[in-house]
């Protein structure tokens, strides 16, 4: 398939891959969620920076470490083995964040979101130990599932976003079709389970 791809298609695939990067999507989700749920500007920034520090900073720090050690900044973290440590640290951060939300804040929606994120990261970490699953499709599918669960079935059309994301990962030779579909299905399943476990608290 890759041999038939034109330069323009490859450029488009790179652009889609960058825009749908899990870190960027998560960053947008953090700011959007905090803007909806934080009672004031002060707590908006506290919640946002705490979430960024716990969930996103491990991957960024690993990226800078590879830049210093290997003179190459791998935003994609293309090798499966290189993903394990950042995922483990992000999972730990998400667990801490979920605990803080559940024990210190009385915001049911935020509790569901933090728990779903922690469960998804843990699941992806376990899978990554043996298989290079697509983090791009998994992250996007998880957030879309939350939108559908909170907003209603009319939002299922948002799952179409996964098509260009998956296409970009295929074109760039980052994943097989099975890894792309596996990432999406794993995220939908784990996020739905988290919803069923904690939705009654909202």
Main β-sheet description: none
Enumerate how many helices there are, as a single number.
Answer: 8
- The N- to C-terminal Cα distance equals 46 Å
SSE pattern: HHHHHHHH
For the CA atoms, what is the radius of gyration? Answer: 17 Å
Shape: globular
Proportion in β-strands: under 5%
Averaged pLDDT, please?
Answer: 86
Topology, number of strands: 0
Helix content: over 70%
Please identify the structural class as seen in this structure. mainly alpha
Low-pLDDT segments, ≥5 res: none
- Report the oligomer: single chain
Written overview of the protein:
- The protein has helices spanning 7-19, 22-37, 41-70, 80-104, 108-128, 135-151, 162-171, 177-198.
- The protein has 202 residues and is mainly α.
- The mean pLDDT is 86.
List strands and helices in order, with pairings.
Elements: H1 7-19, H2 22-37, H3 41-70, H4 80-104, H5 108-128, H6 135-151, H7 162-171, H8 177-198
Q: In brief, what are we looking at here?
A:
With 202 residues, the protein is mainly alpha-helical. The protein is 76% helix and 0% strand.
Defining key terms:
about 200 residues, mainly alpha
């Amino acid at each position: 398939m890759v041999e038939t791809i034109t330069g323009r298609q490859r450029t488009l695939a790179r652009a889609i891959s960058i825009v749908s990067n899990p870190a960027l999507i998560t960053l947008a989700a953090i700011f959007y969620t905090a803007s909806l749920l934080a009672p004031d500007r002060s707590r908006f920034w506290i919640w946002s920076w705490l979430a960024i520090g716990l969930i996103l900073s491990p991957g960024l720090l690993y990226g800078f470490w590879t830049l210093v050690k290997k003179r190459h900044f791998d935003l994609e973290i293309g090798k499966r083995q290189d993903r394990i440590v950042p995922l483990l640290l992000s999972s730990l951060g998400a667990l801490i964040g979920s605990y803080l939300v559940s024990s210190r804040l009385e915001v049911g929606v935020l509790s569901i979101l933090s728990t779903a994120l922690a469960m998804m990261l843990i699941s992806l970490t376990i899978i990554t130990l043996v298989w290079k699953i697509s983090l791009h499709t998994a992250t996007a599918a998880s957030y879309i599932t939350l939108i559908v669960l909170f907003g209603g079935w009319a939002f299922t059309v948002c799952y179409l976003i996964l098509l260009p994301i998956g296409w970009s990962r295929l074109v760039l030779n980052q994943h097989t079709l099975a890894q792309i579909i596996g990432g999406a299905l794993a995220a939908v399943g784990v996020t739905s389970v988290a919803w069923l476990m904690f939705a009654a608290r909202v």
